[in-house]
Amino acid sequence: MNGTKYADAVGAIRAMENTLLTKNDIDQLINSRSRSEADAVISSRAGSISATDTLKAVWEMLKGYAPGCKELEILLYRNDFHNLKAVLKAVISNRDPSLYYIEPSNVELSVLVDAINNRDYSILPEYMRKTAVEAYELVTNTLDGQLSDSLIDNAALKAMQHSSDECGSEFMQKYSQLNAACADIKTAYRCSLLNKSADFMEIALCGSKELDKEELLKAALGGTESLFGFLESTPYSDAASMLKVSAAKYEKWCDDVLIELAESARMKAFGPEPLAAFYIAKETEIKNIRILTVCKEFGADKATITERMRKLYV
Question: Is the dihedral of CA 151, 98, 93, 127 positive or negative?
Answer without folding.
Answer: negative
